[in-house]
Fold this sequence. Notes:
- The chain is of the alpha/beta class and 204 residues long.
- The chain has one domain: Nucleotidyltransferase, domain 5 (2-Layer Sandwich).
- It contains seven helices and six strands, in the order E-E-E-E-H-E-H-H-E-H-H-H-H.
- Strands 1, 2, 3, 4, 5 and 6 form a six-stranded mixed β-sheet that branches.
- The chain is globular and about 45 Å long.
- The two termini are 27 Å apart.
- The model has no long low-confidence stretch (mean pLDDT 88).
Amino acid sequence: MINSxxxxxxxxxxxxxxxxxxxYFVTKSGSLKYQMKPLEVNLDKITSAxxxxxxxxxIRDHFSGLIYYEFALSNNLTPIQSFLFNAWAFKKDYxxxxxxxxxxxxxxxxxxFAGIREKVIELGISLVKVTSGFQGGIRDIKTIxxxxxxxxxxxxxxxxxxxxxxxxxxxxxxxxxxxxxTSLWRDNIKSIRxxxxxxxxxxx
Length: 204
């Protein structure tokens, strides 16, 4: 386990986040609702929650700030291996893809999705545990939830909403200042490895 890191290029370090929304939930009719008072529900207890909560799945390239995002509902969680496979697989007309050298997995995610640590190691990924390097995921959640505000009291639309949020975040200015996150990723990416389908099948 590596205790510190500095990202040198795209796909060097990825940061994984799976978090329960503190303000959004979904009604029985499928509409997205906002509650100002924070919804204090932990990921490990989400399946026993009374409401249907919105769950954010985010993976972030530390070098560029580029993200891949999906959401799920608390009564139908996406398997973490499926999310990671989708994030790292080649996607036409979308920059974020490829297996990282290093991956940060929060303890809450390891606890919720047993065995994921060992499975990512099978891909040749080294694990990173850095308590001070996780602010990027928190900022991304805030941005995502600001975007969700435009869809309140409407039926929640899966793929369209995900793509809209990813495009919005990834076209923002990068840490380099003069170019977008997407451009910083594209201009500096070198070799790319993607997961084979049998890696995903090995979870069955």
